[in-house]
Fold this protein.
Amino acid sequence: MKKLLITGDSFAADWSVKYKGKGWVNMLENDYDVTNIAQAGVSEYKIFKQIESINHNEFDYILVSHTSAYRIPVVEHPIHSKDILHKNCDLIYSDLKEHENNNIASIGVKFFENLFDPNYFIFIHKLIIEKIQEKYPNLINITFFDSFKNEKIIGFEKIFLNNKGDINHLNKKGNDIMYKKIKKLLNE
């Protein structure tokens, strides 16, 4: 059985550690020997560190699910550090806004609303992706944030927007579609 490493953000993380149900990443376990080190809510910087942390020679395929440019890396998330799925989560506005009653989260909200420079974070995000693609040219690159992709990244935002749900942010139909699309990519 071919060995597949999955890295990246929550769209590729193993949600079965917290929720009942199988996402597209779990479905791939029927066809591949899967190692999944993707983490929910992580920034592109932490995705880069995931990729750096492994021996690439141990895998036949390495899949990377790239994230939003607007995630800010932190050592410990003020809300989710004890959550089994989101323990390595980074900051993003929508999440902080939802938990604004938390003192640290409210500071984060104020930062995003008053000081955040999206152009800087888009620039850094682009540099990290270019570094990943330069250093590891054989990776299969995907994203569910099409506005942050380049010509080497396959975008799946429409699948997400049309099939929102509770496992890997997708409903059953969306997970089935992603499973088939990723399996086809791996077989090309």
Notes: The mean pLDDT is 96. The helical segments are 24-27, 44-52, 93-98, 103-114, 118-135, 157-162, 172-187. Residues 122 and 188 are 31 Å apart (CA to CA). The longest strand covers residues 3-8.
